[in-house]
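Box 3.1. Reading complex inputs
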Amino acid sequence: MAKIASLAEAVSELVRDGDTVALEGFTHLIPFAAGHEIIRQGRRGLTLVRMTPDLIYDQMIGAGCASRLVFSWGGNPGVGSLHRMRDALASGWPAPLEIEEHSHAGMANRYVAGASGLPFAVLRGYAGTDLPLHTDTISSVECPFTGERLAAVKALNPDVGVIHAQRADRAGNVQIWGIVGVQKEAVLASTRSLATVEEVVDELEPVPGAVVLPHWVVDVVAEVPRGAAPSYADGFYDRDNAAYRAWDRISRDRDEFGRWLTSLREDAA
Amino acid sequence: MTRTEPAAGSTTWTADEMMSIAAARSLRDRQACFVGIGLPSTAANLARRLHAPNLVLIYESGTLDTRPDELPLSIGDGVLAASALSVVSVPEIFNYWLQPGRIDVGFLSGAQLDRFGNINTTVIGEYDEPSVRLPGSGGAPEIAASCREVIVVMRHKARAFVERVDFVTSVGHGSGPTERSVLGLRGAGPVRVITDLGVLEPDPETAELVLTATHHGIEVERVRAETGWELEVSADLMITAPPTETELRTLRSMRTVGDPR
């Protein structure tokens, strides 16, 4: 049975310096509040794993939480670049950042392998691209039945998987609907897991297309209304596209970002 | 922005509008189309509002057959899920739908494109010390590999249309006509590159991109000046018909989610 705790308690218990941490949510249900709490608690040396780093990893990188980034698409969707990520890569500010770069199909399959208890995944991918020259978790295998050469990618097994979902019940069963991304795989692939939710309810009502993560694979549930903003939670609130656009200006300048970070830290959870 | 005057009549349009309209025209009704965000998404949604009402739009966020009434700003906007026939997980969209070849057309863009239609969205310059760090792959490498065919939509600039891309993010025709089959790529690769100046298609013998059409009012010399390799011109060079009133009106009526009304 998952424990129900405050967000501060959950992060304090689950996330340690030097951990490999995956905060997942594909445009939808990005666990911003949990990422902000990791910033407030001052975690350092994290390997951050996420298909689309998005604003949340730009913020965590700018705050100095990360030493390594594992990803497949690092931009501000529909807006432009992630300036804190670019500054860390180009200038090592505020800390040097190593990268491990994949395609979306590769990352998705790495989570599937991790969730399935397998050491690697097989896919048709990467052939002829320059990615395998720079990423040592991409290799190839020969099919034992047909002899065909296929791409192989190393399983992802983060220390901590963090997601945001719409609802959980009091036992800690977690319900997600709308665009479900790779959240199920990220939680199942991880050693420990945290789900922040919009609301904790007595009973989960069935929703078409919903994914339910049962209570025994989730360690801690924390109720955090609007915990995915400025991304969105289907059925609760819309994506704040203006905030995504505004981030471009805030993140371009270290001082402007510093003011944003100070206000985040002062805004106690 | 430069507006092109048609030979007759009072309608004007921008080069970007001509590009989106030419790209929309290249899609056929009932095709299943894997759509990238930005220019491809605009063109695909325009086609759906014009001649291809049954175009099946698929986004990598897992939305199958989605019919957004406004253009999404990002690949996973709520408007895509709300209007989709079905929403599947990200592993499923890549493994069950894209990988086995169930999608007719991959619609892509890029920062750099070379004479063989290879696309770079990763870095300008050296990988370890790039002059510009771009977003990276996303779904593009496998879209380029596995869709039955690929259409690229990109603004035509000399710095973007290069002899050889700095980084191969997504394979076009590699370095020649046999490379896709040697690599085991099942789709046909780029069959058309639609820009704000014209249309490039691979030569059937060499796989090199040649100019097969210029848009109404665009000179061949201008296209050559904006292309970083010695651009061959097809003997059957076509001229893209100017936008119709209906095409322009429809394009201009489409708004992006969150834009001020």
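In summary: The radius of gyration of chain A is 18 Å.
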